[in-house]
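This is your field. Please look over both lines of this record.
***
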Amino acid sequence: MKARGGEFGSWVQVQTMNAKRMAHLHEIAKQTALGTAGVAVITCVCFALHVDFPIPGCLYLLLVVWQSASASFVSSAIVSIGAIACLDYFFVPPVLTLRISRPADELALLTFLVTALVITRLASRARDEAHNAETGRNDLARLYELGLRLVSVSSDDTVKASYLPIFRDVFALRAMCLFDGALVTLDCDGESRHRLAEFTKQAYVSGKDHEEKEARIAVRVLRVSGKTIGAVGFEDLRNAEATAGPLSALAAAMIQRARAFEAASEAAATAQGEVLRAAILDAFAHQFKTPLATILAAAGSLREIGPLLPGQQDMVDTIETQSAGLGQLTTRLLRMARLDREEIRPKMRITDLPSLVRQIGDQYRNYSDDHALAVQLDTKPVEVLSDPEMLGLAISQLVDNAYRYSLPASTITVAVISEGDLVTVRVTSHGSRIRPEEQNQIFERFYRGAAGQDAAGTGLGLYVARKIVAAHGGALELDKEHLYSQDTTFYFTLPVATKEAEHEYKAG
C-alpha cells in the first residue's frame, strides 16, 4: 500500500509539472501570436502605401518595445526576428527577396536587430526586477503580519502548535508540517499533494534541507545555537529562496516559546505546591499544639487527685513522656516548615557541642525504646560558635531520620570527633541503604527516596538541616565510603571556636 501510494504521489507530481510547463508554453505562444499579428498589420499597411524603409522600421521598433514591456523575452525575441525578416523582404531593395544589395542596408538591418534585442532584454530584465521588488515588498508585509499574529497566540495554542493555520493563511500555503525533535511529534495543517510530512521527517533525521522547486516544496531544518531542534516544511510556497529562511526562524522561535511556556508552567506549579505543602505543615503543627497541651494538663491533674496505684502511675508517666515527645516533634516540624520559607540567621554564641549532643541523646532515650542509642563523645569540652536551638534541630533531624529508617532494635551511633581546628558530628544507622542514583537528591526539599516511601515524614528534614549547617559555616554530607553496606552515615564538620572568637563573643 505504501509503495502504491508513493507511485501515485510521484505520478501526480509529474502530471502537475507537465501541466505547469504546458501552461507556460501556451502563454509564450499566445504572446508570440499577438506580436506576429502586429508585425503583419504594419507590413500590410506600409507595403500597400509603398512607404520607404525607415517608416516601417520605426513602426516595427515601436512594436518590439511594446511587446517587450508586457511579454516574455522569448516571445519578444521571436517577434523581433520576424520584424527584421519582414523589413528585409518587403522594404529593403531588391524588394520581395531576402537579398541585400547595399552595405548601408545591411548595417541598418543589423542595427535594428541589435537594438530590438537589447531593448527586449533590458525591458524583460526591468520587468523581472520590478516583479521581484514587488514580491519582496509583499513578502515583507506578510512576514510582518505573521509576526504580529504569532505574538498574540496564547500559551496553550503555542504548546499545541495550533498556530500552523496562521502560517498557511498569511502565505496562502497548501500545507505546512512542523516536526518537534524534543517531543518527537509531527503537526501538519492542510492537505499535501507531494508527501510533505515524509520530507519533513527525513530532513530532521538527515539534518539536511530539502527542496522541490517544481512542486514549490521547501523543507528547512530548525537549529538553535547550533543544535537541531526540529524541521518545518512548506508546500506551495512562492519565492521560497527569500521567505523559507525567515519562516523557519519564526517556526523555531515558536517551538522555543512552547518549551519556555511548559518550563514556566512546571516551575510555577512546583513553587505553588511547595508553598501549599509548607502551609499545610505549619497549620497541622499549630493544630497539634493545643490538644497536646490539654493532654499534659490532664495528666498533671490526675497526679493531684490523690495517691495513684503503681499501674496508674506508670500510665500517667507514659502519657506525659509520649506527649512531651510528640510536642517536641511538633515544635520541630513547625520550625522546619518556617525555616524552609525563611532565610536562616543563627544567633551565634559559644556552645559546648558534646553537651548539646548528650542532651539530644538523653531525649531520644526517654522517648523511644525500640532502638539502642550510643553517644560517643570526646572527654574534653569542644566549643563552637552556634545557635544551639538551630544546631540542635539539625542534629535532632539526623537522629530522627536514623530512628525512622533503620532496622528495629538496631543501634544508632552519634559521635563527636575533634580533629585539630575542626569538629565532626557523625550519625550512623543500620538497615536502610541509600541508592546511588538518589545520593544527589536526598537533600532536595520534599524529596523522599525509595526507602522512605512507607515511613512517616515530610521530605524537609535533610533540606532544612543542611541549610542550618551551612548557616553555621559547615556542610552536611552523606558518607559515601560505606554506601554498599547496610550502614548509612550523615556527617557535618564545624570549625572549633578559637580564643579570638571567644574574646569577640564576650566583648560583644
Remarks:
- The first strand starts at residue 175 and ends at 180.
- The CA atoms of residues 294 and 323 lie 10 Å apart.
